[in-house]
Write a structure and sequence with these properties.
The chain is an alpha/beta fold. It has a domain of 95 residues: Ribosomal protein L13 (Ribosomal Protein L13p, Chain: A, Alpha-Beta Complex), CATH 3.90.1180. The chain has five helices and six strands; from the N terminus they run E-H-E-H-E-E-H-H-H-E-E. Strand 3 and strand 4 form a beta hairpin.
Length: 142
Amino acid sequence: MKTKTLKISEINKNWWIADAENKTLGRFASKIAQVLRGKHKVNFAPHMDMGDCVVVVNAEKVRVTGKKESDKTYFRHTGYPGGGKVVHFSHLRRTHPERILENAVKGMLPHNRLGRRIMRHLKVYAGADHPHIAQKPQVLEI
């Protein structure tokens, strides 16, 4: 018995569309991360980018449980001394709702070059419209 490893030319990427309306943030992001990584495929290899492309619509309507709407914060650093910035979840939902899902999915992917490459296959839109109709995405049931 021999183990067959796929070549990069043999990997085919499908396009999926997922609606975030009334979905719980963590569970929804977890499923998207699995599809982006390619864990749903039988030929999964952890060292290769073999996942599919995912388009997420209605990101502004994603749901959080408990008191996260008022208490959850996101921290980032500018790189300068004293450059720590804290943004609250409610402010981020008003200004850039797509970043909520991007941050959640990014935290569930590998924290290396492969994870950054996989993140390029995620397209998040706040509303119901998206420019990826030509790719004919299939509906991702979550």
